[in-house]
Amino acid sequence: MKTIEEIKAAIEGAVPGAGVEMVMNPSPSGQHSLRLKPEYAVAVAMFLRDNAELTLDFLSNVTGVDWPDKEVTEKVKRTHTVTKTVEGVEQQVEETVEETVKRVVPGYLEAVYHLYSVEKKHGPVVLRMRTMNRTDQVELPSFTPIWRSAEFQEREIFDLYGIVFKGHPDLRRLLMWEGFKDHPMRRDYVEPDDFDYEPTPHDEVLARVHAHKAALAGESGTEAGR
Amino acid sequence: MNHIAWDREKREAGWNRPPVIEPDGEGELLEVAMGPHHPSTHGVFRMDVALDGERVIRLRPVFGYLHRNHEKIGEKVSYLASMPYTDRLDYMCSLTNNWAYALAVEKLTGQDVPERAEYLRVIVGELTRIQNHASSIGFLIQEMGASGTPLMYAFREREKILDLFEQLTGSRMMCNYMRFGGCRVDASPAWLAATRKVVAGLPGFVDEFERLLRSNEILMARCQGVGILRPELAVNAGVTGPMLRASGVDYDIRKVDSYGIYNRFKFRVPLGDHWDVYDRFMIRILEIRESIGILEQALKEIPTGPVMDAKAKIRGFRPKPGEAYGRIEAPKGELGFYLISDGGPNPYRYRVRPPSLINLTILEDMCLGQNVADVVLIFGSVDIVLGEVDR
Known about the structure:
The structure holds two protein chains of two kinds. Chain A is an alpha/beta fold. Chain A is built from four helices and nine strands. In chain A, the strands form three sheets. In chain A, strands 1-2-7-6-3 form a five-stranded mixed sheet. In chain A, strands 4-5 form a two-stranded antiparallel sheet. A two-stranded parallel ribbon of chain A has the order 8-9. In chain A, strand 4 (70-86) and strand 5 (89-105) form a beta hairpin. Chain A is flat. The two termini of chain A are 49 Å apart. By secondary structure, chain B is an alpha+beta fold. Chain B has helices at 70-76, 83-86, 94-109, 115-143, 149-169, 189-215, 217-223, 231-236, 242-246, 253-256, 277-301, 355-359, 363-367, 372-382, 386-390, and strands at residues 30-34, 46-52, 55-62, 178-179, 182-183, 322-330, 333-341, 349-353. In chain B, the strands form three sheets. A three-stranded antiparallel sheet of chain B has the order 1-2-3. In chain B, strands 6-7-8 form a three-stranded antiparallel sheet. Residues 1-7 of chain B have low confidence and may be disordered. Classes of the chains: A alpha/beta, B alpha+beta. Chains A and B meet through strand 3 and helix 3 of A and helix 3, helix 8, strand 6, strand 7 and strand 8 of B.
């Protein structure tokens, strides 16, 4: 089997402008991955499946990963020009100060694909794709028309992570019920206020039930949340 | 013969989608919800079927009745704490689930497994495969209307194997036997002797059981030519395990990856020729025979020594940052675990690649145009466990 560098070169030769990036994996498993640009992903996937040398005809595993916004604390050295009085004379002096800066690294959702070849019996080749952010630009191209095995797995990611796969023939929730709103596998997921299903008829719980139902009725007028 | 070498040029767009079946125009369509509590679904699972007379023209599987977000729970607890919970995925074969998870973690950390532990893993893994395949055939015959007796044949044998599991691990079904870098307890000489005795009795059972499949005219009439799955679609849809091999594709992860010590054993990979329900069950019979062969070799060669890697860390287990995907040939297909570590005590991402769910992708393709009574058989031939489908 080709090394990851050779596969990267082959993709870039076949799909001009694909801009594949290598993601190295420091663990002993040595399964390095290739990050694709979503706009070229379908062309690259077709190449990987149909190339006679690679023949990655079996998409084994498709999964999502959530990388939320991260606050990074960094120490940065900055040089300021300050006016100081040295020996009775006013002078412009350069002073270097170490400052602690907090910076927010924007989060994203990631889809990871593990490809094998049934015909050539090699693998895995790991592909990854990132969405622009975690809120409104969460679209990625669907691989279901290329590998049918992605059908249920992409539905599961749509359900649990909220990545929208464009080109999927039947993108519905797989495991949660229809009408459910959130995406439970996201790391900042908070369990909903489901007190009305608690079978303890104590006053405190009942009060919360009534508040919850009133809030729901005011929200949309439909039976939401369940 | 290479079944996969189909003509790539002739593939049209949508070749891997289920075909559209037109009703014949006489009478009304009938929509039936098979399940969630149907005896043939082996759990809680629903199929919304549209029928034209008795012919299936549409089938939509509905999942999620047993969903408890196993993956989220796995991300909230330590690596080791997920081990007993993997037993509950495919509760018929807890030991292979343990093995797949242990293998993925060992790939992540680069741990070694002692020789004796590898042999014990093969022995319990193959025993698991035998009891799973035997009960799945028993269920098939049960679903065709022979209630009770044939299934009890399978369960009689399964009970002997579960007794062995109980002696070794303390539990019949929820074994929780493997650890990262070995196995939890060693097998006593008495256990090995008992296992040899059970294995010696298995070929007789398989002969008897195979006669049920080979000589029953009703069974053959109902299974042969039903639920055909083309090999190119099977590969494209990610079907694995006995299902894939019944479609004539030579792909067994024990041979391809030769994980553990499988390259030391001689065994053959049976392949199907007609790609139908009958083939799927005959493949399982043949795989039981091969598994018995592996067990005989393993029980003969098993060395003495430790069953845990001496350097293995149990408390304060924190793999270095990185990721790994480990997979094994579980009785139902390719069972894989994908783990991302961020250096903490619990996995950042814990993913189960469930063979039962992915093998159901082509359920609709196999059922379209068949009679509704055959849906039960085709579904049974996929061999799923809902604990793993919904996770």
